[in-house]
Design goal:
It is built from seven helices and 16 strands. By secondary structure, it is an alpha+beta fold. The strands form three sheets. It has an eleven-stranded antiparallel β-sheet, sandwiched between helices. A hairpin with a 2-residue loop joins strand 5 and strand 6. The longest helix has 19 residues. It is globular. It starts with a strand and ends with a helix.
């Protein structure tokens, strides 16, 4: 019969609809890509169609804003928030407003228009992780920013308006509600039990292993107990760490391996599904390092959120998380490319150029 499961962090209930149980082959989705190659501004040779680069991994001897890059970061041409402005709040009767201050950047992950993170060599994904870290750390220096959200939309259903492989980073002058709720739950659990709730989840999942999908020396990938979506996945560092920006250099490749592995397994198991992934981390100036635990949330977009979900806050998941984990765990990925894809090095004067662009 159907089962109700409660997420221990969000305290949200999920309906695991076992009587609707679906297999991976049951999911049909629209094509991932649109035919936008001719108009894509992110392809190599079209650097003049984007704002000036903020950061790039380039082959030696190549000039900024030209060919020769491997990974490239630019300001979003149509930003949700802008660098200029004040964070001062004003009241309008019952309401509160402030300038739309922030930063909105695009991490162009490769020159190849038709690839994605689940298909790139691990060493290339390492360069992308380093670009994430460099921009995340640099934006911390702006006192107006409280939080930086790193995310990726893959496929039209997941909100990608361009099919060229790219991620985005938005720095915000406030802590998002979802993040604040996670942080409150983590601090509440720590206050009651004296341990990080994510560390406790990791310990339980590594003992039971029913929902474990992949692990290496530093990271674990698992299906959450109360997964909202079919094949939802979490990647967590084994060592307690609240701040993504504190990732040590010796773990960059291990994170790249875990992320690439999971996206590759989704690609081959679910025929390149649309998905979103989000890096959840500690707000820039939070003191809750003892309680929070940064993680990556991967959400394939295989079902629709409709009236019941919006009205109740419940989610209906037709795939039992243990079955999803087993399917992904037992998948046999294609051989993983290894070795460097470029002799490029980071390039660009960060910070000042970003604020002037």
């Amino acid at each position: 019969m159907p089962e109700l499961r409660k997420d221990p962090i969000s305290r949200r209930w999920v309906i695991i609809a076992t009587e609707r149980a679906a297999r991976p082959t049951d999911f049909k989705h629209e094509g991932i890509e649109v035919n936008d190659l001719d108009r894509c501004p992110f392809c190599e040779g079209r650097e003049d169609r984007t704002p000036p680069e903020i950061y790039a991994v380039r082959a030696a001897g190549t000039a900024p804003n030209g060919k020769g890059w491997t990974v490239r970061v630019v300001s979003n041409k149509f930003p949700a928030l802008r660098i200029e402005g004040s964070t001062q709040r004003t009241k309008v009767g019952l309401f509160t407003r402030m300038d739309g201050v922030g930063a909105h950047e695009v991490i162009v992950e490769a020159t190849d228009h038709h690839t994605h993170l689940g298909l790139l060599p691990v060493e290339h994904v390492v360069q992308i992780i380093r670009a994430y870290l460099q921009r995340y750390r640099d934006l911390r220096g702006d006192a107006r920013f409280e939080y930086a959200l790193l995310f990726r939309n893959h496929g039209r259903t997941a909100g990608a308006s361009l099919s060229h492989p790219h991620s985005q980073l938005i720095a915000l002058p406030v802590v998002p509600k979802r993040v604040a709720e996670e942080l409150d739950a983590a601090e509440r659990h720590f206050g009651q039990h004296g341990v990080c709730i994510y560390c406790a989840i990791l310990e339980q999942e590594q003992q039971g292993r029913d929902r474990l999908i992949f692990e290496n020396e530093a990271f674990v990938a698992l299906a959450p107990y109360a997964s909202r979506f079919p094949f939802e996945t979490l990647i967590l560092p084994k060592r307690h760490e609240a701040d993504f920006g504190a990732l040590p250099p010796d773990q960059e490749r291990l994170l790249a391996q875990a992320l690439r592995e999971m996206l590759h397994r989704l690609h081959i198991c679910l025929d390149n599904p649309p998905y979103n992934f989000i890096i959840h981390t500690l707000p820039y100036r939070s003191e809750a390092k003892h309680a929070h635990h940064w993680h990556v949330e991967i959400m394939p977009r295989l079902t629709q959120v409709a009236g019941f979900e919006w009205g109740s806050g419940f989610y209906i998941n037709p795939v039992v998380p243990e079955e999803a984990a087993r399917y992904l765990r037992e998948a046999i990925p294609a051989p993983m490319p290894v070795g460097p894809v470029s002799a490029g090095r980071p390039h660009g004067e960060v910070g000042d150029r970003m604020r002037d662009s």
